[in-house]
Every structure is written in C-alpha cells, then in structure tokens.
Amino acid sequence: MSTKTTIYLDHNATTPMAPQVIEVMTQALRDGWGNPSSNHPWGRAAKAFIDTARQQVAELLHCEPDEVVFTGGGTEANNLAIHGITRAHPHQTHLIYSNVEHPAVQEPMADLVARGHRQTVIGVNATGQVSANEVLSAIRPATALISIMLANNETGALQPLADIANGAGDVWVHTDAAQAVGKVHVNVNKLGVDLLSVAGHKLYGPKGVGALFVRRGTPLDPVIRGASHEGGLRPGTENVAAIAGLGAACALAIQNVHARQQLGARTRRLLEGLRQKVPGLRLHGPETERLPNTLNVGFPNVSGSALLGSVPHLAAGTGSACHEGQTTGSVVLRAMGLSEAQSLEAVRLSLGHENTDAQIDTAICDLSAAWLALQLAA
Fold this sequence. Notes:
The structure is a single chain. The protein has 2 domains: 19-255, Type I PLP-dependent aspartate aminotransferase-like (Major domain) (Aspartate Aminotransferase, domain 2, 3-Layer(aba) Sandwich); 257-377, Aspartate Aminotransferase, domain 1 (Alpha-Beta Complex). Helix content is 40%, strand content 15%. The chain has helices at residues 19-31, 41-61, 74-88, 103-114, 132-137, 161-167, 188-191, 240-255, 257-277, 304-309, 331-335, 340-344, 357-377, and strands at 7-8, 68-71, 94-98, 118-122, 143-147, 172-176, 195-199, 210-214, 282-283, 294-298, 314-315, 321-323, 326-328, 346-350. The radius of gyration is 21 Å and the shape is globular. The relative contact order is 0.16. The mean pLDDT is 95.
C-alpha cells in the first residue's frame, strides 16, 4: 500500500514509532540481548536499558522508578491493577467503574462479577464525563477499587480523576491512562491515584509493552505466577528492546510540550473548518475538557463508515462495530445519550505530531465534499 498521499488521523488507535524510539530499540537489540537477571557484562548491559527506561517512565509520570512495573501492554496493566487489588483484598467485593471504560477495564470487571463480586457502573453526562460526586457516593464499606479512565479513547473526554481520588478515602483508585499519557501532562501525585496504566504504542512507542504505576504501599497480588521479575508482580524475562522503546517514547513526550500545543491548535483548526463547511456538524464530547488531539464529530444524515469509505486516502475511525453483517453504533456515544442513528454518523479524527496544516486543510475539504456528495446521492 502506498502511503505517500494518505493522511493518518487515527492516532488514538496507534501511533507510528518515533525514529528516536526505533534507534534506541535497535541499540537494545544489538547490545542488550543478555538476560537482565544475569550478573555478568551481557546481563548488566541489558539491565542498564531497563533501568534507564524505568527512570524515563517515572520522570514522565512524576513518580519514583520503583513504582513503575513493566507489562506486556496497557491491557495487561489494567488486568494487573484490577485483579491484583481484588486478590489482595478478597473480602472487599465491590467495584466501581464507568460505562465508557475501554474493554480492557470492562472485561476484567465483568469476569470478577461473574465470580461473585458486586459492581456499581457509573453513567456519563451528554459530554461523556462522570460526576465525581456520583462516583464517591457509590462507595460502600466493601468497595475494593474505583477504576475511571483519565481520557476516553473515542471522544477524548477528560475525567475528574483528582476529585475522585482525593475524595475516595481508603478505597484504591486506578485509572486507565493509555490515551492520556503523552497527550496531556500526567502527574500521578496531582491526580492522587494509586494505580495508572500506560500503553507504549499510544505515545510513539512499540506495541506489546506497557507499564503500571503502583504507588508505594499499594497492596497488589500478581496475576501471573513465576519468578521475581518486576518486584514479583510481572514474572518472565523482560522484553528489553520493547521496554527501552517505551522509555525512549516517554523521554520524547517530556520534550514535546510545544508539539502538544501545536497539536491542539491543529485540532481546533480541523473542528472550525468542518463546522464552516458542514452545517449541523455535532461535536461529541466536551468543547475544552478533552484530549488536544481528538475530535469525535457527527456528520448529519450520513454514515460515518460510508463517509470514510468515500475518502480512502484518509485514515480515521468510527467507533461503530459490525456483528454478523449488522452495524451498531458506538457504545460510548450511546452512553452519552445519542440515538443509534446519530452514533452511526460519528467519525473519530485523532491527530498526531506529524500532521501538518496542509493535511488538516485537505481533510476539511475532502470530508466536507464527501459528505455533500453522499447527501445529494441519498
């Protein structure tokens, strides 16, 4: 497939690895091939890559290096947080989470409920945000864990995590921050959370690697049993190159403050341009309290899938799902109160650092022209 003319606006699905990340991973593959647990030059060389990466992740999250546990991705980090807390607290059998969480949170929760846990699922308002007061009001004496994502993957809506964590008392608080880390400033101490999940491929790092911040003093049982790697929480010989790549991606994110500002400006340019050319365009999510790179918009009376199919050189997502030939709208958008028809009109446009003003202007023209053509053909 030729990508010379393709405009990639699907960065919430995954990001291309940054050149600096590829360079560090190549070095790790060449020079860090030893077993990091071995006490000889090859093992120590491998361990040095991991130690550097742990420090880089910690610097991005504003935590201590020994509070960073490397995992096989964001999904595994979420599972370790959820199952790890509940295993450590077998008599605390109540869970709280929102109805717009990623499946990597909803499915572990559903598994626990099937095994006898109880749950309170918090709904969201029309902009896709939970009420901190409603979350805190759901706490019971038996509550083991609150898990609320920091930013929604479909709408970019930011959640009031600091208010939730500050009011949670002795209840442990976890956040799936896979979409937020690298896009907004994330400080675990200001958020006040006990556990926070990171996914490497969402911030220009490699796939198949992630991290879980575990605040000191948070009791957590391992989900996978084995040796004492990662403080005993994630046994198995470490994937040195992937971990080094995650560290390099985190180091880049620290440096990219100006790039994130440009990202926000280009996202606003895209929204304003589409609003001018598509009467009745709907923004799904908050005007301001959302990720600087994310737009979820509804094109009136036109299927989002059909719209993107008419613009094959533009890569984006819809959030809808197809089951046995039947397309259903986004669960997240339905939770926000949109009708099935409205949810099927949605398109998610998520920008990245490599997008240019010229690409944004092209996307505005091509999406609006395709929408008009589909309107006329209806």
